[in-house]
Amino acid sequence: MKKLVFIVFTLSINMAFSQTSLDIEKAINMALVNSSLYEKASAELSYSEENTILFRKTFLPTIYTSSVFPSISKSVTRVTTPEGLDIFVNQNQAYYDLRLNIEQKEPVFGGTFAVSSFLNRIDLFGDINNKTYFSTPFSLSYTNNDFSFNAYRYEKLINELRIKEDNIAYDMQLEDIVNKTVNKYFDAYIVNKNIEDKLKALKEIKDIYDVAKKRFNIGSINKGDLLSLELNILDTEFSLNELTFQQKSSKEALSNFVKNISDSILFIKPKEEILNMKVSYDFALDKMIGNNKLMLELERKKTEKELEIKTHQSDNRLSVGINASYGLSNTAPTFTESTRDLQDQQSYSLSLRYLLFDFGKNKQRIKLMNLEKDLLDSEYKIEIEGLKEELFSLINTFSSNQKRLFSLKKKLEVSSERYTFLKNRFSFGKVTITELNIAQREYRQIDNDYLTTLKEVWVNYYDIRKLTMYDYEKNKVIDYN
Q: Quick one: which H or E segment has residue 95?
């Protein structure tokens, strides 16, 4: 055991000159680049961006071509002669078709414009051989199956909300990385600080033990006091051994999360700006309501539900469909002739549809959807109330821990001064071993409480940051995009 302690002590001194310093800000920046959670968040954001690009491309033109080369048929077909008689004739023919189409959706009413050009040819075989061309160099058409309802307006709003929601989700994921880094950093920092304190305490106890042996030899203390000090040395060495294993574990956890940190790390004491920071509940609540993903998620889901309701409501209303086209075409025995003297062709159709009676099925569906929409409000209201309670508790805990930390800092200074004073008086035989042990235990306990509370203050602050998505140091909304 003593050999292990000596090795730890020696390594601590030697490594102090070769260690790489790592403060909490540096650890956070490294985690935001290297952690696996960052890779996951980036992949999800990339998927969201690609999905947005796909939605926007929905309203770009579509250009395609189609062809039939050829369609051959041989059949007996009934035809009507010029004299009005129906006869059956053998018909052998080949049909060819070539088309070029450009389609474009329009966002105002949700219809589709189409520009097309096509060429047909029919070849007849048998007793009569004949070729006929039908060409349409230009044709323009517009189709809208329901002129009274356009879902695109809702789909556009839903997509915009989804973009904002995904961006905030990305920021919240990265803030979660920050939160985890703070926890892991303090776990490692506290263990390393405890090892430093234990090594210092071990040296002090051994010095006191040397003094106690001299006093024992002259009879100013009894053997029980001397054995008590020896037991204290063994307890400290055992604690140091346990802390060494904890150090490896906490350092490994931080290294796996942050990545790319050296084997020799010197943990820097965190800055104290956060320890004196004041966070108002009303201000934080306002930021949480404005920045939290839940609010956008609720708005998006309500808009999606409204789209479903409007779609079913349109089934109960008068549905108007429009189909109109204009083109230039001609037919002739040759291709060249079919492209000359083009004749215009026009068509227009207006279709009306109105649901007369469906025994209230569609009306009941709409009623259920409205209830689902109201239920959404209730569910999110409960969730938001829970977040408000969590925020209130976090801010109160943060403020309470700040005050406790300030008190512990004062107590630590006083207990350290008291322990040093009693340790010096012990050398002159003015203080008993029991008094000295009590002073040392109180000092170590206050020191442990201080480190634990220091971590709690930092964790509380970053919990508040994550919940409100607001940086209270820089006075700005957290945005990693």
A: strand 86-105
What residue ranges do the domains of the chain occupy?
2-54+155-302+370-477, 61-106+110-146+320-353
CB 253 within 8 A of CB 184: yes
Q: Which of 3.40.50.11190, 1.20.1600.10, 1.10.10.10, 3.40.50.300 is the CATH number of 2-54+155-302+370-477?
A: 1.20.1600.10
pLDDT digits (tens, 9 = 90+) for 129-181: 788 888 888 889 888 877 667 788 888 888 888 988 899 999 999 999 999 99
Residue with tokens 């909304």: 477
DSSP state of 126: S
Residue 182 to residue 179: CA distance in whole angstroms: 5
Task: Please give the helix or strand (H or E) that residue 267 lies within, else none.
Answer: strand 265-267
Instruction: Enumerate residue ranges in the chain where pLDDT < 50.
Output: 1-18
H/E element, 299: helix 293-316
- E strand intervals along 268-376: 319-332, 343-353
Query: 252, 279, 246: which is closest to 265 by C-alpha?
Result: 252
- Cα–Cα distances in Å, from 323 out to 204, 346, 365, 389? 96, 11, 30, 57
Helices (H), 121-222: 152-217
Distance from C-alpha of 414 to C-alpha of 404, rounded to nearest angstrom: 15
- Indicate the residue type of 156: K
What are φ and ψ of residue 428, in 5° steps?
Answer: -100, 10
The Cβ of residue 78 has, within 10 Å, a number of other Cβ atoms equal to: 8
Q: Helix (H, G, I), strand (E, B), or coil: what is residue 16?
A: coil
What pLDDT, on the 0 to 100 scale, is given for residue 2? 44
88 φ, ψ (degrees, to nearest 5): -105, 130
* Residue in the structure block whose two tokens are 């600080």: 193
State which H helix or E strand residue 231 sits in: helix 223-258
Mapped onto helix, strand or coil, the DSSP state of residue 117 is strand
Q: How far apart are CA 28 and CA 33, in angstroms?
A: 9
Q: What is the pLDDT of residue 1?
A: 43
Residue reference for tokens 């006075």: 475
N residues, the chain: 481
Where on the phi/psi map is residue 475: left (φ > 0), alpha (ψ -120 to 50), or beta?
left
**How far apart, in whole angstroms, are the C-alpha atoms of residue 469 and residue 463?**
10
d(CA 448, CA 415): 13
Tokens 């346990």 correspond to what residue? 242
